[in-house]
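Hi V.,

You were right to ask for the full record rather than a summary. Here it is.
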Amino acid sequence: MEKQSGISMIILIIIVAIILVIASIGVNYANKLMEDKNLKDLRTDMLLIQAEAKKGLEEFCFQSVNLDKNKEEDNVKIEEIKKANLEGIPVAEVDEQIKNEISQLPEEIVIDENSYYLDEQTLKEMKIERLNTENYGHFIIKYDFENVNIEVINTKGYEGKYTLTQLEEAYNKGEQSN
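Predicted structure:
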């Protein structure tokens, strides 16, 4: 009888060890799924921001195509067209807290006079309402007027990737490895 009790204890320990291994594999798999979901959510939101902002950029380019940047009166018109069509607040005009977060971005991400901060009101107007700064950080649009292009930048980033271009590259690598 004691032999049987000893064997039962060993079998119980083996079963518990197997359950622990299976549970740890399940937890690791769930964590990987959550990371993938977070990357996809951030990427999707940044794509939506890019699409909405591109409309305004194209309208700006259309309205300002015949204006000369070297003429003072045309510069005034260009600034008026920017205010009417571009999404966000020029980074130079945001409060110090936001500027501090922006200054924490890696050096290769250049924020200049063509960079605009998207506050919560602007995001709501763009129909992007599920974002909160605790989870996602702040969003910045960098307009490229010459190439009619937009880079979306996130202050929190995802695994060291802060721009939509970087996230797209990471996402595409992940898709190829699956």
